[in-house]
């Protein structure tokens, strides 16, 4: 059925059809998820760059933020964007990291979890490169 829909869409429209599950590796341990930022956790009041989420294999795709009783969306935020309490981050990365981020505690324990996640990301990347060569 999916092939038929794809064929019809490509033939009769200009809509490009992508298999996002395959494109993003969602079946290979990666996901796109919401991360709610809580005041008493590791994420708030820091910039994306200072958090070094990219070293954990996490990309922040966007941020939903309440501003003057309106919700705004910040798409593709840069490293200088500050994460605020009550923000909702849309992130792409390893399943276990995405699920851990909103619960990561402040202080030394949060930093240790970050260090461990960075080491895991390096190991995962190395494994993926080896599989690529095979």
Strand content: 15-25%
Q: What's the helical proportion of residues? A: 25-40%
Number of strands: 6
Helix-and-strand structural type = alpha+beta
Label the overall shape. Answer: flat
Spatially, the strands of the biggest sheet line up as 1-6-3-4
Task: Please work out how many helical segments DSSP would assign.
Answer: 5
Provide mean pLDDT, rounded. 86
End-to-end distance: 33 Å
Unreliable residue runs: none
The largest β sheet comes out as: 4 strands, antiparallel
Helix/strand order, N-terminal first: HHEEHEEEEHH
Radius of gyration: 18 Å
Please characterize this protein's 3D structure.
It is a single chain. The chain has 134 residues and is an alpha+beta fold. It has five helices and six strands, in the order H-H-E-E-H-E-E-E-E-H-H. The strands form two sheets. The chain has a four-stranded antiparallel beta sheet with strand order 1-6-3-4. Strands 2-5 form a two-stranded antiparallel ribbon. A hairpin with a 2-residue loop joins strand 3 and strand 4. The longest helix is centred in the C-terminal third of the chain and has 27 residues, at 107-133. The radius of gyration is 18 Å and the shape is flat. The two termini are 33 Å apart.
Present the secondary structure layout.
Layout: H1 2-12, H2 20-23, E1 30-36, E2 46-47, H3 48-51, E3 59-67, E4 70-75, E5 82-83, E6 88-94, H4 95-101, H5 107-133
Antiparallel strand pairs: 1-6, 2-5, 3-4, 3-6
